Queue: 2 jobs
Job 1
Amino acid sequence: MTKRAGRHATASRRGPAVPQRRRHRRLRPVSKRGAAAVLLCGVLAVGTGACGLALASQSGHGARPAGRPSLVPVPRGDAAPVPQPSDGEKVARPASLIIPSIGVRTRLIRLGVTSSGALQVPASAAVAGWYTFSPRPGGIGSSIIAGHIDSLAGPGVFYRLHLMKPGQRVYVRRTDSSLAVFRVTATHMYLKAHFPTADVYGPTPTPQLRLITCGGTFDPATGHYLSNVIVFATLVR
Amino acid sequence: MRLTAKFARPARLAAVIGLALGLAGLAGPAASASPVAAAHSHVGWLRLAHLSPNTPAVDVYLYSFGNPSAKIVLKHVAYGTVSGYEAVRAGEYTVAMRGAGAPAGSKPVLSTTVNVAAGKTYTVAGMGPASGLRLQILKDRLTTPRGKALVRVIQASLQQHKVTVRTGRNVLVRNLAFAAVTPYKTVSAGTWNVRAAGETGNAAESIHLAAGTIHTLVILDDPGHLAIDNLVDAAGSRVLPAGAVQTGFGGAAPVPGSSPLPWLITVAAGLLVTLAGIARLRKSRRALHVR
C-alpha cells in the first residue's frame, strides 16, 4: 500500500512532463541568480559573524573607554614626611584619591563592614571609599581603598585599575591637605574564593596602600564578578 | 582536474573551518585569575636603633654582605632614636656603628651580621652600657591573634636598673633588667594607661593599642625621669572583613551572550554557504559554456 502510494506520488510529481531542454533553459538564469544570492548570503553571514566575534573577543575592560588619563594632572603640594615608628595615628584622614595614570580623581567616602562582615562598598560606582578600620593612608600599615569597576550602566571609578603597573604613582590628599604619595609594587587578580585576606588586611611594618576592585569574569547568575583586582603600593614620601 | 577539484574543495573547507576555530581559540576569554602571589615575596624589613644611654651619637651603616658600599647610612643617631623600617631584599647584611662623623672607611666601633628572611622584620639595636655596648638583633612580629594587639618591652634605662611595666592593672613585666627585652605579649585592644616604675623614677602614658597592631614600648632615661616610647612595629586593619569585595555591578562586563561560539558557528556556516554559492555559480557557468 505505502509503496504503491509512494510510487504513485512520484509519478504524479513527474506528471506534467516538461521537455528537458526547455526546463533547463528556463532554470539556468534563475540558478545563476540564485547562486549569486547564496553567495551574498554567505558573505553577509561571514561578515556578521566576524563582527560578532570581534565584539565578543573584546573583554568588558577596555570595551568602553572611561575617563581620559591625560586629563587628571599630578597633584601639587608638599608631601607629608614619612611617619616615624612612634608616630602612631598622627596622620590626618584621607579626603581624595588621585591616580593620573588611569584618570582617577575621586573624593573618598568612609567604608565599614556590612552586617555579614564583608567589606562595605560605596553605594555609587563613581566614588571610592577608605575602609575606616584600616590604617590611614601614610600611617604605618596597609590602608584599604575600594571602588567599583562598573555600575549597572557602565564603567565605574576603578574601571582601569587592572591596568596599573609597578612604579606608577597613587596620590592621597588628606583632610589637612597634606599629600601621601605611593608607588605601585604589584597588581594581582585573585579568584574571590581565594581572596588573600592576610596580604590585604594583615599588619605591615611600613605605610602601604591596597586598592581593591572587581575583575575577571562577570557571573550574571549572582550579579558579581568572580575575581578581585588588587593593587599593592608602598609610601614613597 | 576534476579529481583535484573534488579533493581541493573539502580541503579548503577544512582549512577555513580550522582557521575559524583557531580564531575562536584566540578570541576566547582570557584566564580569569592569576594564582595567589605574595605581594612581597623577596623582601624583608630592617630598622636600626640606638638604645645605649651613655653612648654618644653614632653613624649607623647597613651593608649588603660582602658589598663595601653602604646601602643605608644614618648619620648622628643619638640615644633613643629608632629608624623606620627599611625594605631590603632577603639575604645577609652587616650593620656597623661608627662614632658620629667618623670617616666611612674607618674601623667601626662595632658591627654584626643579620640574616634577613623574606617577609620578616628585624630591629638591630645598640644596647647596654657604653663600656659593654653590643648590637642586638631582635626578631619582630608581623601577625597578631585576631582582634588583639601585641606588646613587648625594651628596658633601655640605665638610671633604673629594674623596671616594672603595667597596662592598666595588668603587669606586663616585673623587674625587667637594663638591656633586656621581653617576648611579645597578647593584650586586649584599647587605650591603656601604661606605667613604668623603677626604684626611684617612673613614667605614665596613655597608649592606644589597636587590634591588629604590634608595639614595642621602649623605656628610656629622660634626665631625672623615665620615658616610654611607643613604637608601632606593624599595623593592620582593626577589623578583618570576611571574604572578597563585591565591587562591580556588571554594567561594563561583556554581555552574557558574548561567548564567541555562536559567532563562530555563523562564520563557519557563512563560509559554507559562500563556498556553495561559488560552486553553484561555477557549475552554471560551465553549463553555459557547454551549451
Job 2
Amino acid sequence: MTQLAVTGLTKAFGGRPVLTDVDLDVPEGSLTAILGPSGSGKTTLLRIIVGFEHADGGTVTLGGAVVDGPGAHVPAERRRVGYVPQEGCLFPHLTVAANVGFGLPRPERRTQAIGDLLDAVGLAGLGGRYPHQLSGGQQQRVALARALAIKPSLVLLDEPFGSLDANLRATIRADVKRLLAEAGATAVLVTHDQDEALSTADRVAVLRDGIVAQCAAPMDLYTMPADPELARFIGDANLVDGILGDGSVETILGPLPVQSSGRASLNPGPVTVLVRPEQIDIAAKNGTHGLDGRIVAYGYHGHDAVVHVVPELEPGLPAIVVRTLGGCRLPAGSPVTLHARGPVLAWQR
Amino acid sequence: MASSQTLLRSGPPGGPATPPAGLARRAKRPVFLIAASCLVAALLATPLVFLLFEAQGAGASAVAHLIFRSLTASLLWNTIRLTIVVTALCTVIGTGAAWCIERTNLPGKRVWEILIVVPLAIPDFVVSFGWASLWTWVQGFRGAVVVMTLAVYPLVYLPVAASFRAADPGQEEVARSLGVGRLRTFTRITLAQARGAILGGCVLVAMVMLAEYGAFEILGYQTFTTEIFGEFSLSFSVPAACALSLVLVALSLLVLGGEGIAARGRGRVSRSGPLVARNLPPRRLGKATLPVLACFAALVVLALGVPVGSSIYWIFQGGAHAISGVTVPTAALTTAGYGIGAAAVDTVLALPLAMLAVRGTGRIRHLLERSTYLVLAMPGVVAAFALSYFTEHYANGFGYQSAPLLILCYAIMFFPLALVGVKASLARAPASLDDMARSLGQRRLAVLLRVTLRLALPGLAAAFCLVFLSVVTELTATLLLIPTGAQTLSTQFWAYESNLSYGQAAPFALVMIAIAALPSYVLGRFFNRSGNAEGITIT
C-alpha cells in the first residue's frame, strides 16, 4: 500500500520554479531516498510533505488522505510526520529525555517509553544531558528518537548524516536503517550523496530540474538508468557512440551484447552506449584484440583504482574510465589494452 | 507504526470542496504581526507628529524667524565642536582600551574589563556633579569635554571590544604571512575589521552629546538641549522651543543618516569557514606594560573614582543649604514604579516588531523596522516637550503631568533599546525550532509558549532591565513630565544639586550608581554572550 503519494507537485519561490512536476509514490514500510544535487529542490519537497510550505499545485496524499491539494492544507502539527532535519534542531533548553518526549501528551512525557527509545538509539542513560553536551552523532540519534516518539505515519530525514564525519556516517546510517526497519516506519531520506542513497534506501528517486527523473531500486537505477545523463549522475559512466546491429552493438571497445530489457524499444542504427568502468578489464599492451590506449591519469583509492585511458588511434575522444580492484601497477603513460564485458545499456541517438 | 487510520483520525477536516485554490494555498502573511507593528510604529511617531503640529500652530514664519538667528548659530557651534572633540577622544580611548584588553597580555584584564565599563552606568549629570562640585575650573567647553569624554567613552569601547572578539584572527595571520608589517597589519586589517563598530560607537556618542541636558546645565555649557529646556520650562516660549527642537531633530537625523551611508557594506566582521574557538596569541606588551597599566589606572580614577569619591566626600562634608525633600527610599520606590512600568510596556511593544525583524522577510518588515529608528532622532527633551505641550494645550489637559504620560514618554524614548534586546533574544529561538515543534504535533500557541518564548526569556528579561536602568538614570524628560509632588531619584538629586545642597544630593547620586552599575555589568555579559556565535548554551 502506498503511504505517501505526491502527484504533479509544483512550487516556485519568487517566480523561480523549484519543483515543476513532481510525482512520487512511497510504499508503506519502505525507505525511499530522494537523490539530487544541491539546489535541486529536495529540501523544498520535504518541507511541503511535512507541511511547513504550501505547494503551488498538485497534491500530497498521506495514508490515503489529501494533506495538500487544491483547497486543502493540513497544518504540520496535524500530519504526524516525523521530521529529522539536517542539523538535528534539538531544543537547546530541554534535556535529551524532554526533547524525545516533546511531541507526546503531558502524561506520557515521563514514561518508560522514552527510556526505551533512548535505549534503541544507543543513548541509554543520557536522558538527563542537554543537547550541547552531546556529540554530533548523538544529537542526530536524539533527533531520530524524537521523531519516532510520536509514532509517525512517515519519517522524513533531511540529509541527516551530512554534518558527521565519514567513519561515523557509515555507522549511524546503518543504525538508522535498522531502527526504521524495527519501528516498521515508512521513511523518506533526502541526500545529495549517491553512495548513501544506493547503500541505505530500498528505492531511490532522482530529483532533477524540478521533476523526479527516475524512481527505482538502487540496483535497477545503477544498471538501467533512464537516460545517459542519469547514468552519468549515478556512478561513473563511459558513454560511447555505437551502431546497433542484430543483438549486439559495435563500439570503439569492440562488439558488445545489449541488455535484453531495453533492446525491444531500440531500432538498429546509431546509439549511445553505457559501459560502466567495472565492465572493462585493463592489461599492459599485449597485442591481443581490444582497444589500445595510454594511461593519462590514475586515482588510487585503496580498495580499487580508477584509471583514465585515452585511445591510441583516436586521442581526441574523451578518456575511457576503468575501475580495477586492488589497483593496477602500471605507471601513467603506459600503453595498455582494454577489454569490455557486456551486456551494456544503449539509448537511441 | 501509525497506519492510515491514525492519520485520518487526526487528519484533515472536510473534503476537497473548499475555498478557491489560489487563495487557500498561499502561505499566510503574518497579518496580525504587521498590524501590531504598524500600531507600535505609529505610537512611536507621536512626539514627532505633535512637534510638527505645534510648530504649525506657532506659525511657520515665526518658527522660521526663530530658527535663523544668531542664537541658533552659536548653539550649533557649541554643539558641533563639543561633539567632534568628545567623539574623537572617545574613539582613541575606547579603541585603545579595547585593543589592549582583547589583544594583548595586559595583566589583570578581567578586572580592567569591568572597571572601565562601569562609568557607563553613572548618569552623565552625576559625573558632571562629581567634577564640578570639586573644582571650579570644570566649566564651559573645557569642563564639558572632560566630563563627557569620561562619561561616554564606554559607548565606543563596548562595540569595538566585541568586534575584536568576533573578528577572524586568521586575517591578521594571513596579512603577516603576505609580508605586511605589524603596524600596517594593525591599520589595514585590525582597524578595518573594527571600523563598523567604531563608527557605531561614535554615532552613539554624538547622539548623547545632542540629547544631554543635566551635565551641560551643571557645567553652564549652552547647547540646543539646555536652551530648549530653558525656553519651554522657564520662559514658556513655545515657538522658540519648537524651532530649536526642529533643528535638533534635523541634526540627529543628519548623524543617523551619515552613519547609515558611511557604514554601508564596510568593516563587516565576518569569519570564513567554521567557527572555531581559536584566537591569536596575545601581543606581548613588554616594556610598555607599566605605562599602559598607568593609563588604565588613571582612566579608572578619573571616570569612576572622581564621581564616586566626590559623592562620598560630600556626604561627609554636608552642605550649607539644607532644604526639605523626599527620602531616598521614597524616591527609589517612585523611580522603580516608573521604571517597571516603562520596561514592561517596552518589552511588549517591541515583541511584534522584533518578531517581524527576526522572522519575516519583505519590504514592509524593513520599512517598519527602519521607521522605529526615527525615535533615536528624538532627544528626550524634545519628546517630553512635545508630549507635555500637546496634552496641556490640545488634549484639554488629558494626561498632562500624569504618571502614564511619563511612562509613555520613557517607553518611546527607550524603545530602540528594548527592540535591540528583544531582537537578540528572539534570535536565540530560530524558526527551524518552531517548525520542528509543529511537526511534533504542537499547535501554534503551544509552540510559542514551549519553545519561542521559553528560549527568548533570558533575553526578554535583559531587555526589560535595560529599559528599567535607563529610566532610573533619566533626568531631562522626567523633569518636564513628572507629576506634581512626585520625586524620582534623579529629580530629587537635581533639586538638591541646583540648590547647592551637595551633601543631600550625594546619597541620591550613589544610589543611582549602585542601582545602575551592577545590573549593567550582568547585562553586558549577557549581550556579549548572545553576540558570540558559539551556539546557545543554557545553564
